[in-house]
Amino acid sequence: MKRTDPQFKIRLPEDLKDRLEALAAKEQRSVSAEIVARLQRTLDEDDARAGAPRPEDVAALLGDDEGVRGALEEMGTLARRMEAMTALLRSKASEQVLKDEKKAAKKRR
User: Fold this and answer.
1) Which of 37, 80, 89, 99 pairs with 66 at a CA distance of 20 to 30 A?
2) pLDDT by residue (tens digit) across 7-58?
3) Where are the chain's structural domains?
4) Which residues contact 91 (CB under 8 A, 6 or more apart)?
5) pLDDT in tens, 53-78
6) Cβ-based neighbours of 62, under 8 Å, separated by 6 or more
7) Are 20 and 74 in contact (CB under 8 A)?
8) What single-letter DSSP state applies at residue 29?
């Protein structure tokens, strides 16, 4: 994130602001960077879900076979787990980039 990126004002409930500040401190990044990382993660998760058909839609196309429905539900569960793992990995990668940038900035001082 650059200082030249657009700014956006937002009102937050006090308790949410406090939580974000605590999480940002734990991750050793600014509140702004914490919000951006979390927002990016949820948008990535939404994009991943939008690209996959829902198990109930596929089951409706294939008929009401219990075996097919069970297999599709299990596939949906596995897909959601994979999405969550992918989002976590992206988040950790973003955190590492921020930590590396922070270290580089300290060295430049």
Assistant:
1) 80
2) 888 898 899 999 999 999 999 999 999 999 888 888 877 777 777 666 666 6
3) 18-98
4) 37, 41
5) 666 666 677 766 677 777 777 887 88
6) 68
7) no
8) S
